[in-house]
Amino acid sequence: MCLVESSPIMSFRFLLLLFTCCSLCADEVPDCVQELLSKEIFQEPVEWISLSGGATNENFCLKAKFLSYFIRLASSDRETLGASWEREETMHQIAAQLEIAPSIIAMDPQKGVFITSFIQGSCVNLRESESLQKIAFKMQRLHQSQKKSPFVSDPESIIQSYLGLIKNLGPRALSLARKRPKVRLDNLVPCHLDLHSGNIIQNGEELMLIDWEYGGMSDPLFDVAILASTECFNDEEMRKLLSCYLPGYTSNDWKRLYDFRILADLRWGLWSLIQKEQSKLNVDYDAMAKLYLDQYESRLMTEL
Question: Which residue in 4, 19, 91, 195 has the fewest CB atoms around it within 10 Å?
């Protein structure tokens, strides 16, 4: 897994990965991980590599003699934020079947452990035309797959839920939130709903998508808008993304993407405020919230 600072937002939401490698005896690897993997793996020393950078979870790579595993130890507040194990398992399995995500090795929701095969790769720069074309193709493949999930993600419902969780939003922010646009969901398709360069791995010529905990059925343009939001795209970059994803798009397509982008900025701004109140991770959620809410306010004031 690799996270990269590719935009002002990313520099706050996803820190550059730091790799801390150490050889461990089997009894030094967390029991919750050992219980899910073959005992033969731990008959020889392994490397336990900390992958710093997640904004809600702790991530690791376990390097054994012949295989490597990606291991995520999840935070306890994921359900509050709208993520869930059931969502992740369902959506990750769909993505793995479509060959756009690594295969699931094991998981234990009660202990907060999720294990997949480790994908060796590099960071992706979504401001490069080739990378933008590739991620648009992966999104098309997912959205057009006709796969189904029982989990539906409506941006309005997410925002209302988040508003109910924040204790100190403030009257001005609440007033701005109430001015958000209402956008109808035209077509429910499987979506990732947390796309950004930190959740995309460049594996040779292919891109692999990870971290499906927020995934579900939603409007495909909301999925596209989330990527534009997390990458802090300006209007020109948003148009390039939409052109890659939907060649020959109409003015109505652009209007819907623009409004979904406003909702995506608000979603992540509120998400950051909730994390500020609840998370124990050493992340500057204040700065994240300001950046997202500034984006939201700016676009809201110039709404098409």
Answer: 19
